[in-house]
Design goal:
This is UV-B-induced protein At3g17800, chloroplastic-like. By secondary structure, the protein is mainly alpha-helical. It has 15 helices and 6 strands. The longest helix has 34 residues. The radius of gyration is 23 Å and the shape is globular.
């Protein structure tokens, strides 16, 4: 490698092609991603009651606006993000992203390799000293190194997600503790178009239905309707946000599984699997769904190699029909976060966004007055966050083995 970047060396400006494919102390939260999202019989969240969101129209008043861009809401945050990097690799990548953006993905790859080597080295030394007088010491060192690397990897994941938002020119909403004035919150500009642009048409249709279910307004509602105000507790707003993050993660997983099954069905139509070209295999692998291949073959509701009629029927099946037809076991498999790092990242991000800024506690009885437009902005951001998290998790796991979420 002609140029080597790490937090231990000086960064010099240059132009690199990105190797990244397109596409701590933790406090217990009431709106944990482990329990925030339930899928009722209607897998697309059939009613507002499914989310537990209670919306009451309120009289319109002159708003005090908290912008989601660079604003005094977050004076101490150089990136204007709710969660600050806690590790040295995270702070290093934050600096690279701000000052040498073109080197960001090279720096990420280098940091992930360093973290993987550090963790593996500590484990190797622990195994080599088993049975010796130093075994206890090296076991403790390996545990501390594992914890340190996990915090660093979570920061790397967060920086990658932040980068994806910056690509579509959408800043993350700052901490609400610094943006709510007199119990009033407004997020401007809305950035709805940019946040919707990351989805294909089929996914976008489902996302819009999710938004409609959450905020209670139809997609074709008037501008006046969207600027009407509503009351919601901070705790409920946090739960809605986390549920939408998980929903975005689920949609990414389900859409790729749907694409995979359609590809397998098309390749199986002539009953000659030996004729499948290497290009077809590369297309499947490019979507990063190798873990879903075996689920597809083993699941009773998935494609069967012996059912030609089923394959032909799936050819034209929409993503919405496919998702609604998934059995509960497959549905939960698609919705489950694959790594502990992803679970902790959602908890920490939500804590920073909705907590009080000091103890990360959410006051249940605090009622916030906000507009339907601001609610839509938060929900769309959360769905995009979940989609980017899926991509980031898949990429990092190819370099640094993440801890499985059991």
């Amino acid at each position: 490698m002609d140029y080597c970047l790490s937090r231990h060396s000086t960064v010099s400006p240059a132009t690199f092609s990105s190797p990244y494919p397109p596409p701590s102390l933790r406090h217990p939260l009431t709106f944990s991603p482990r329990t925030a999202l339930n899928f009722p019989n209607n897998h697309l969240l059939s009613g507002r009651a499914a989310s537990g969101l209670s919306i009451r129209p309120a009289g319109r008043t002159f708003p005090v606006i908290a912008s989601a861009g660079a604003s005094p809401c977050e004076p101490s945050s150089s990136l204007n993000s709710p969660l600050e990097p806690r590790s040295q690799p995270g702070k290093f990548l934050s600096s690279v992203l701000q000052n040498h953006r073109q080197l960001f993905h090279v720096a990420v790859a280098e940091e992930l390799k360093l973290l993987a080597n550090d963790r593996d080295g500590a484990v190797s030394r622990m195994l080599l000293t088993v049975g010796s007088d130093e075994a206890c010491l090296h076991r403790r060192v390996a545990q501390l190194k594992e914890h340190e690397c996990q915090l660093a990897v979570e920061d790397v994941m967060y920086m990658l997600i932040f980068y994806r938002f910056s690509e579509i020119k959408v800043p993350l909403v700052p901490r609400l503790s610094r943006c709510v004035y007199n119990s009033r919150l407004e997020i401007l500009p809305s950035r709805d178009w940019e946040l919707e642009s990351i989805h294909n048409l089929e996914v976008l249709e489902i996302v819009r239905e999710h938004v409609t279910t959450i905020i209670g307004l139809r997609a074709d509602s008037s501008v006046t309707d969207y600027w009407a105000t509503t009351k919601i507790t901070r705790l409920m707003l946090g739960r809605v946000y986390v549920a939408s993050v998980l929903y975005g993660y689920f949609l990414k997983s389900a859409s790729l599984r749907h694409h995979l099954e359609q590809s397998l069905a098309l390749a199986n139509q002539d009953h000659h699997l030996g004729r499948r070209t290497s290009d077809q295999f590369q297309e499947l692998c490019a979507y990063g769904v190798k873990n879903l291949v075996f689920d597809t073959v083993s699941n009773k509701h998935s494609v069967s190699y012996g059912q030609g009629s089923t394959n032909q029927g799936m050819k034209g099946e929409s993503l919405k029909c496919y998702v609604m037809g998934l059995d509960p076991e497959t549905l939960q498999r698609c919705a489950k976060l694959k790594s502990n790092e992803a679970v902790h990242l959602i908890e920490n991000h939500s804590c920073a966004l909705f907590g009080d800024g000091k103890t990360c506690l959410v006051e249940n009885d605090e009622v916030i007055l906000t507009s339907f437009s601001s609610l839509k902005r938060l929900v769309l951001e959360a769905v995009a966050f979940g989609s980017f998290l899926w991509d980031t998790e898949e990429y990092i796991d190819t370099v640094y083995k993440l801890n499985e979420n059991n």
